[in-house]
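Researcher: I'd like a candidate sequence for this fold, 148 residues long. If you have to choose between options at a position, lean toward the conservative one.
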């Protein structure tokens, strides 16, 4: 069995120019029959075929992606860890009530989580700098007290 050699392509000549991918090839095959296929799908849907109905509706009304969400949150709320906990609770409630989709809730919770981490590390950084300023003035036992 041969091993892959780092930096060497398994297909050095690459894909031939003008080669179509499978999706494009299939689309070209169906293109001459598009009108007939659409009419048949609509006919099946109107006669109660659930799969045909789903296909027609999904093509007419595609699933929404990256929909804008407006939340009643001020920028000051994002600077307070206690308020961020409240925001997270509101997100959970929004998902439970159906005001937010689970995907939207997950996305917003991820942003809240990152902001909480940012606030935490900012606070830790400030405390370390404050200790560094105080350290030359403090006795050894005082420094130990701050670290415990």
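Model: Candidate sequence:
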């Amino acid at each position: 069995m041969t091993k892959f050699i780092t930096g060497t392509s398994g297909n050095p000549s690459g894909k031939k120019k003008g080669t179509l991918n499978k999706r494009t090839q299939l689309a070209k095959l169906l293109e001459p029959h598009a009108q007939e296929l659409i009419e048949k799908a609509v006919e099946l849907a109107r006669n109660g075929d659930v799969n045909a109905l789903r296909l027609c509706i999904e093509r007419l009304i595609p699933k929404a992606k990256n929909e804008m969400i407006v939340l009643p949150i001020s920028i000051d709320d994002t600077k307070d860890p206690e308020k961020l906990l409240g925001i997270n609770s509101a997100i959970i409630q929004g998902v439970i009530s159906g005001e937010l989709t689970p995907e939207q809730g997950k996305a917003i919770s991820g942003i809240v989580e990152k902001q909480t981490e940012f606030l935490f590390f900012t606070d830790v950084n400030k405390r370390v700098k404050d200790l560094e300023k105080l350290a030359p003035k403090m006795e050894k036992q005082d420094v130990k007290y701050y670290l415990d």
